[in-house]
Design a protein that fits this description.
By secondary structure, this protein is of the alpha/beta class. The structure holds adenosine-5'-triphosphate (ATP) and magnesium ion.
Length: 520
């Protein structure tokens, strides 16, 4: 069948393009009952004679006021794959309100090819059957849809291969075009049961950190990037071995060593959203589960300072048990409000473990979970064992490798500077966080952006930090010696006391023997 004949068929039988446009204009002047009759009758007659089938994808999602994911995906697919062939396009402000997104306009027909078959897509809208008196949003009364038309003989091909293909491609385009987001959990008092997504609020994620700007020893950095790359590309592998497609990282180290910066760099590298989970705002395990279920794939879920967020250590929990009696005495002295507060805060270690393993498996994949802590030793081993936290990354003080990155970032110094050898030496001997080193390399005024000046300042700061550390160490040793001395004195006193008691007992015994003798 020639393209002309097909077009005529389509115009006659399915009412595409211009026909629909004219219909949309005149239908408001026709009484509703007649309009319905005309629509259904023409559709019935047309479909009886037509060798073509059509599939409609409606914009209305399952939830009220929610757009169907399939509709959004088709929109993304068409704007990428077919918009070039359309003559009528529409432009909207896309992500971060900076980019223009161009898509196919309503009533404009575009063709697509798949496995040697031609299909026709067009977008249109129909009046919603339930008209309301008050419209809160523009266009609320209209329901938009996409319709694809194809020959009957291609039914299986379209349903089983083409539509899944459109779904896959559309998702990839939607992810590429989306504005990445940083989510934070809302307090449960503000959750809305009609809007499941209300458990998280979000802002655009625009952290500029990348692995290029992260100060770290190059080999360690490369190992992390390789690990992330392998994870991203291992969908099939995870499926083959029967594991959920997720990975856990524990970032530990002193303050200011770049743990939060590393998370931002990871998100930028993987092109993922970030869910920053504030555990102290979560009342119990049920809330935790709900929060998790509302996260999407291609995301990093972060719990910062895990040791401070929740009482997680086995030791502390055991200690709690032992002192249960004492606690119940304490509770008596608590105010009613305080008791309620304790009752409400019930996220437990096992709840958190379920959050990490149990639900992961049933909620789709491509998620990374990251815990950060300043004190790895305080964490329960169950929480950070391999399989839960697959990779433990130590973020440590700045050494020369990290410094070189900072010198390049902050001062554009890429070649060896005369002061580098002294800085290298000092960095090996002194523990200074990358945050502090960076502070010294960041001149506040444009005029002072002289590398030599900044490096001199850094050397001074490093020397001072070294002296301070030595002084603190000396003080610590002194204090230890003092404690040792006290200990010795105490031990001596205890020994003398014991000796005295022994001697007394001896004298007592002797006296008793003498008494026995005189009584004999
Ligand atoms: N390794 C690093 N590379 C680049 N910049 C860093 C690095 N570490 C720290 N910084 C700088 O110092 C600042 C603080 O770092 P960051 O918040 O990542 O530290 P942190 O380890 O998360 O600290 P905390 O334990 O207090 O949360 C950042 O804004 C960043 O500019
Ligand atoms: Mg941090």
């Amino acid at each position: 069948m020639s393209a002309m004949t097909v077009d005529r068929w389509l115009a006659l039988s399915t009412g595409v393009g211009g026909v629909l446009y004219v219909w949309s204009k005149v239908q408001d002047y026709i009484p509703a009952s007649l309009r319905l009759y005309l629509t259904t009758s023409t559709t019935k007659i047309a479909s009886y004679f037509s060798p073509y089938l059509e599939i409609t994808i409606s914009e209305q999602g399952i939830e009220r006021f929610q757009r169907s994911e399939f509709f959004i995906t088709v929109e993304a697919y068409l704007s990428e794959a077919c918009a070039r062939r359309a003559r009528k396009l529409k432009a909207e402000l896309g992500k971060d309100s900076k980019n223009l997104q161009v898509s196919v306009d309503d009533y404009e027909e575009v063709t697509d090819e798949f496995s040697g078959t031609t299909l026709w897509w067009y977008a249109s809208k129909k009046q919603s059957s339930a008209r309301s008196l008050i419209n809160l949003y523009p266009g609320q009364d209209e329901s938009r849809f996409y319709r694809v038309v194809f020959h009957r003989r291609d039914r299986d091909l379209i349903v089983n291969s083409y539509l899944p293909f459109v779904l896959g491609e559309g998702r990839a385009v939607a992810i590429k075009n989306r504005q990445r987001r940083l989510f934070t959990n809302n307090a449960s008092s503000s959750w809305n049961s009609y809007q499941p997504k209300s458990v998280w609020s979000h802002v655009p994620f625009e952290h500029p950190a990348t692995f290029d700007t992260l100060a770290m020893e190059p080999e360690q950095k490369k190992a992390i990037v390789d690990d992330l790359k392998a994870f991203k590309e291992s969908k099939e592998y995870y499926g083959k071995v029967g594991k959920a497609w997720k990975r856990g990282y524990l970032l530990y180290g002193p303050p200011g060593t770049g743990k939060s910066t590393m998370i931002a760099a990871m998100a930028n590298y993987l092109d993922y959203d970030v869910y920053d989970l504030e555990l102290t705002a979560v009342k119990n395990n049920t809330e935790l589960r709900k929060l998790f279920i509302e996260t999407t794939g291609k995301s990093i879920i972060v719990i910062e300072d895990i040791d401070c967020s929740i009482d997680l250590t086995g030791k502390r929990l055991k200690g709690k048990k032992a002192s249960a009696d004492k606690e119940s005495d304490d509770e008596k002295s608590k105010l009613p409000g305080e008791l309620e507060k304790d009752e409400a805060t019930k996220v437990t270690l096992s709840g958190l473990l379920n959050f990490i393993d149990g639900l992961w498996s049933s909620c789709g994949g491509e998620r990374i979970i990251i815990f950060t802590t300043n004190h790895k030793e305080k964490l329960d081993p169950a929480l950070i064992r391999r399989g839960r936290m697959d990779k433990h990354i130590e973020m440590s003080y700045c050494r020369f490798g990290g410094f070189e990155v900072l010198a390049k970032n902050y001062l554009d110094v890429v070649v060896e500077h005369e002061m580098f050898s002294e800085i290298r030496q000092l960095l090996e001997e002194t523990d200074m966080s990358p945050a502090d080193v960076a502070e010294n390399l960041m001149p506040m005024s444009e005029k002072k952006r002289d590398p030599g000046e900044c490096f001199r300042g850094l050397i001074e700061a490093l020397k001072k930090a070294k002296e301070d550390a030595a002084a603190a160490k000396a003080k610590g040793e002194e204090a230890e010696a003092e404690i040792g001395k006290e200990k010795d004195t105490k031990e001596d006193a205890a020994a003398a006391k014991a000796k005295g008691e022994e001697a007394e007992a001896e004298i007592g015994k002797e006296k008793d023997t003498e008494k026995e003798k005189t009584s004999d």
